[in-house]
Amino acid sequence: MQIWPMQAEADSFYGNPRGVHGAPSSAWESDNLVSFTPPFQMHYANQPIQHFKIHTKCHDSLVRVFDAIWQAAGQRQILIDRWGVSIFGGSYNFRLMRNSNRLSMHSYGCAIDLAPDRFSMGAALPRFAPEVLDAFHAEGWINLPHDRMHFQAARLK
After folding, report:
1. Fewer Cβ in 10 A, N or C end of the chain?
2. Using one digit for the tens of pLDDT, what is the confidence trace for 35-44?
3. What is the pTM assigned to this prediction?
């Protein structure tokens, strides 16, 4: 299993995504972000997407995560849809954490949100299917207990 950095170590592990005057760094983006193509159909705001941006250090791990989910679903899109994995909520997005002055893990391209309409912030239930959680956990990604839609390749403790 991959051991990801602590959130506080994100700058040293993923690089500093900050540009001048607090804006995202286009040089960092071009050096560190790559396109990820899921093995199944995903949608964002009811529109199909073919790929999204993720940090290059997370790419191969996320390939294994999504391949494991696709295999666990028997390569059936209907099951992927039922599990909510086909509903993309975002990945790279340069922004601060909620209620914080620290950068979100999305700013480093090491986080992904899935099915935000089903797994809203603060909701205790429902949870993702065990197959989904197991695939992410096998690669060391964490799913936040207070933000069930969110998976990140950075540890809290």
Report:
1. C
2. 999 999 999 9
3. 0.94
